[in-house]
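Duplicate of #3305? Posting structure anyway:
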């Protein structure tokens, strides 16, 4: 095997690899000898089939297999000998007219391979990174508010005579129409709505105040401009309603008896669970904020060239998602007060950040032997499977038989473990903030993102 470097520019590499025809012929002879001992061909005793006959029957097919295996083996060997790390699998270029000659044994194997190598960079001292961790102290009033919400949502309702008031639950059949024609998802035979809850389209609930069981009514409402279903956004619809029943809410006393109705031993235990839930929610928001700060600081520190093919691949994924989102929402670039060219440039920057940070986190994890355990991956797989009730076995088999899909479960676990590793070494200081301040920090981060 002869390897010649034909390009070494930045991260780009191109090699020319040549294998003498004699080497390929020797591999073909060895292949045929092995086949001779196994072949069972009518008219010949086992192991007595002439090699020339086998070559005539299977030579071209065998040489194609040898050629494919040789290209893979020599490509891998060439890169290993150069001690390089390709960003993606190399592109192999073997001219078709040459391939025919090689298959027939008339020419040496000569092909080129192009690839980008991963950039080299130094890992910084993580103790130089300063992170401010916003922490919300859960007040007793916050716990009480959440308990009251739980109580409100679990209030008993009893049927009543008379007109519906705010707080009452209305059971009804309704059909929504656009220009006199029913639209998909706009009908229910036994829909229930607590008046004043704000669960339906603005203006819907208000028009039900005062209705009684047995009433029939048509109301007009206008869907919000930002309504998720694009075919309904901003449209005025009519709903034909038949009121079936009015129920009035009862009262709930937050005491030990109420807690026991939920399967807990006391109201204090319920408060403890509620507090843990609130702290968990704030903890997730805090984690999001801390991680964002860390990634921003790493993005500031690291500036290096990126493998072009890897960057283009990432941009294609990001841009495809942008186009799908816009198509789903029915919006245009003009609606977003931009142009396609400006949007492409902006999302190109986002792709560059994602690729750069991905390479940085991967290098940090590799240098510090951070790994995802089988147990962690198995747990992630089961969590994913549970998201598809009734299809658990199919989803499980899909991930088990699809290495790329399984890698998509491993990647976020690996990233979080690397982030945790860095945070252990960074200077992290806690700052007590209010719930509103934390929410604003998260909102500002999302707006920048």
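Output from current build:
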């Amino acid at each position: 095997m002869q390897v010649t470097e034909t390009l070494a520019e930045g991260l780009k590499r191109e090699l020319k690899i040549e294998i003498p025809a004699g080497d390929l012929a020797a591999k073909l002879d060895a292949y045929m000898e092995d086949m001779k001992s196994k072949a069972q061909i009518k008219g010949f005793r086992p192991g007595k089939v002439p090699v020339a006959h086998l070559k005539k029957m299977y030579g071209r097919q065998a040489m194609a297999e040898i050629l494919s295996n040789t290209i893979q083996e020599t490509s891998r060997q060439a890169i290993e000998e150069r001690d390089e790390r390709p960003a993606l699998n190399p592109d192999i270029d073997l001219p078709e007219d040459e391939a025919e000659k090689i298959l027939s044994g008339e020419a040496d194997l000569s092909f080129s391979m192009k690839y980008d190598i991963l950039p080299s960079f130094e890992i910084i001292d993580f103790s130089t990174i300063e992170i401010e961790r916003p922490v919300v102290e859960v007040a007793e009033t916050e716990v009480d508010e959440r308990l009251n919400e739980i109580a409100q949502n679990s209030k008993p309702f009893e049927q009543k005579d008379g007109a519906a008031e705010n707080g009452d639950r209305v059971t009804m059949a309704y059909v929504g129409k656009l220009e006199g024609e029913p639209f998909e998802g706009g009908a229910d035979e036994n829909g229930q709505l607590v008046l004043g809850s704000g669960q339906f389209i603005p203006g819907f609930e208000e028009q039900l105040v005062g209705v009684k069981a047995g009433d029939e009514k048509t109301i007009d409402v206008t869907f919000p401009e930002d309504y998720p279903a694009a075919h309904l956004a901003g449209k005025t619809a009519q709903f034909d309603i038949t009121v079936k029943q009015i129920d009035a809410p009862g009262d709930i006393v937050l005491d030990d008896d109420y807690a026991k109705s939920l399967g807990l031993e006391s109201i204090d235990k319920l408060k403890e669970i509620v507090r843990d839930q609130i702290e968990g929610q704030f903890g997730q928001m805090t984690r999001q904020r801390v991680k964002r700060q860390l990634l921003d600081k790493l993005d500031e520190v690291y500036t290096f060239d990126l493998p072009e093919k890897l960057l283009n691949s990432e941009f294609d994924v990001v841009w495809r998602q942008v186009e799908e989102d816009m198509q789903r929402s029915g919006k245009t670039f003009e609606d977003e007060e931009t142009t396609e060219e400006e949007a492409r440039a902006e999302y190109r920057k986002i792709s560059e950040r994602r690729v750069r940070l991905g390479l940085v986190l991967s290098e940090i994890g590799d240098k510090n032997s951070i790994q995802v355990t089988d147990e962690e991956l198995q747990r992630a797989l089961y969590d994913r499977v549970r998201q598809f009730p009734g299809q658990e076995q199919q989803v499980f088999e899909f991930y088990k038989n699809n290495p790329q899909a399984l890698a998509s479960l491993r990647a976020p676990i690996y990233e979080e473990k690397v982030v945790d590793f860095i945070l252990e070494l960074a200077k992290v200081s806690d700052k007590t903030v209010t719930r509103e301040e934390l929410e604003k920090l998260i909102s500002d981060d999302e707006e920048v993102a």
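Confirmed duplicate; merging threads. The radius of gyration is 33 Å. The longest strand covers residues 181-194.
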